Amino acid sequence: MNIRAFSTILVIMVLVSTNLNNKVGAEANLFSKWRFKKEIENFGEKQTNKVPLIYSKKEALKNGDITFFKERTSEQKKKITEFKNNVKNKKPDFIRFTQFTSNGDAVITEYQFNGKIIYYRYDSSRDRTDQHRKGTFVKGKFVKGSHIVEDYCKKLVPNSKMSYITNCYKYDKIEF
After folding, report:
1. Parallel, antiparallel, or unpaired for β 148-157 and 173-175?
2. What is the rounded distance in angstroms from the CA atom of residue 167 to the CA atom of residue 171?
3. pLDDT in tens, the chain (176 residues)
């Protein structure tokens, strides 16, 4: 066999191998996505979305919500650290952050960990000014999304500047 024929066979083998690897990788991805969807379906009862339509700061504090965003109390910092540790140790937990607009409307972000995955829910439906609704940019223009954004994520990355959840079903990562 001459060098040219050997090179051609080698190139064909590499192409076939690469093609097979891509196909196997794609099938593994589909299986992984299917398995994640099954975990989502079996998440269990959610503690989220149990806040009344009219929700005051007094009620939020009574319920243990994190309400201060610039200067948190030591109790709130402890609660956040405890949630992060519970996720790390695979212990189910729930935490709610409630921000209030200048009109006193509640904007709620909730995280519920069931021991395997984190359910994330952002709810700006009570915001009458509509300033806190999330969205995205399409062709350079901001397009408002739904008042409620939900996702399921597998990992919480604690960070001193900005912690986030990742390995999500819909999004790449979400700020915690």
Report:
1. unpaired
2. 8
3. 556 654 555 445 444 455 545 554 555 677 788 899 999 999 988 888 889 989 999 999 999 999 977 778 899 999 999 999 999 999 999 999 999 998 999 999 999 999 999 999 999 999 988 778 776 677 777 677 788 999 999 999 998 788 999 999 999 999 99
Structure tokens at 28: 């593994």
Whole-number Å distance between alpha carbons of 105 and 129: 9
For the beta carbon of residue 47, count every other beta carbon within 10 angstroms.
16
- Chain centroid to Cα 101, Å, comes to 23
Residues 6 or more apart in contact with residue 168 via CB below 8 angstroms: 120, 151, 152, 153, 154, 174
C-beta of residue 55 within 8 angstroms of C-beta of residue 98: yes
Q: 134: which 2 tokens?
A: 């999330």
* Look-up of token digits 């009219």: 54
Alpha-carbon span 152 to 161, nearest angstrom: 23
